[in-house]
Amino acid sequence: MAFSNSNSSLKLHGFYKVHFCFIWLLLGAANAQLSSTFYSSTCPNALSTIKAVVNAAVANEARMGASLLRLHFHDCFVNGCDGSILLDDTSNFIGEKTAKPNINSVRGFEVIDTIKSQVEKLCPGVVSCADIVAVAARDGVVALGGPSWTVLLGRRDSTTASLSAAISNLPSPNASLSSNPSSNLTGLIPAFSKKGFTAKEMVALSGGHTIGQARCTIFRSRIYSESNINSAYATSLKSNCPSAGGDNNLAPLDTTTPITFDNAYYKNLMSQKGLLHSDQQLFNGGSTDSQVLTYSSSSSTFFTDFANAMIKMGNLSPLTGSNGQIRTNCRKTN
User: How far apart are CA 79 and CA 169, in angstroms?
Assistant: First the structure.
């Protein structure tokens, strides 16, 4: 009888051990870590395929490098780097594309579509849209002369998107360093702090504005109403951005080298040539002035800090393991 009880105990112990291991494996799968070699065996040509499409797109239109970078930023700051920004509206949800910070502004969707189509032919159902966006952002920066960084991979795609989250999480181009209760705008430092970034990292990421363009409607109030702007610079902008009309007319965020990723953005701020209100706030007698000075005098320091901040941003709340899905079409769920 004692032997029988002992045998039963051993069986019971074995059952719990196996059961525990099974649960542990499930938890491990759900919380899998991102890895730079995630596709090494399952889709070895994924990264070279993405790079080739991005290089062609940037060669065709230099602005696309900035657009792909911004697409990644606007994806990650809204519920994590999950490709949610790519989803079209459905009967079940209104997505992020029509949120005020994105509508008529965020672009590059067709490039992502092209990449996805080519990668699906190579390795069906393997490479996520979220990972494509992350890699394309890096490759777009490199194509315009900027730094490279190791993109960690293994993100999965969301099955929903949120208009309200996009509105509330993306920093406003009219924001100051600190929050302004009277205007209901979250300040740049608090907005980035909510995502785990220091003020220094916020200044580094803002350097992405060394490439790209903005619409007149975004910077009109700055060039007509603000005093901390170079007068000749403001006058030159007014010719293409009238006080009324011309909302979609474009101006480069970096007036010096608009299609080269460098540190000229920070030098422009020191000359009061920041295009957006939020840009010039980085050098306006506040706590971030010294960091702007550092980056303006050392492009290598800026490149290093920017690359590290991009890696950190790419790790914002990814879906991994069994969470989410691998979309076949980046614009809709499977």
Answer: 9
Q: What is the DSSP string of 297-322?
A: H-HHHHHHHHHHHHHHHHTSS-B-TT
How is 245-260 classified by DSSP, letter by letter? S-TT-EEESSSSSTTS
Active site residues: 74
Instruction: Give the other-Cβ count within 10 Å of 192's Cβ.
Output: 22
For residue 286, how far is the Cα from the chain centroid?
26
pLDDT of 33: 86
Written as one string, the DSSP assignment of 155-204 is -BB-S---HHHHHHHSPPTT--SS-BTTTTBPPHHHHHHTTT--HHHHHH
Please give the model's pTM, rounded to 2 decimal places. Answer: 0.89
Identify which of 126, 69, 74, 61 has the alpha carbon closest to the alpha carbon of residue 101: 74
Tell me how far CA of residue 236 lies from CA of 171, 211, 227, 251, 256, in angstroms.
27, 19, 15, 10, 13
12: pLDDT strictly greater than 60: no
DSSP result, 276-290: SHHHHGGGSSSTTHH
> Rounded distance, CA 296 to CA 44, Å?
39
**pLDDT reported for residue 186:** 82
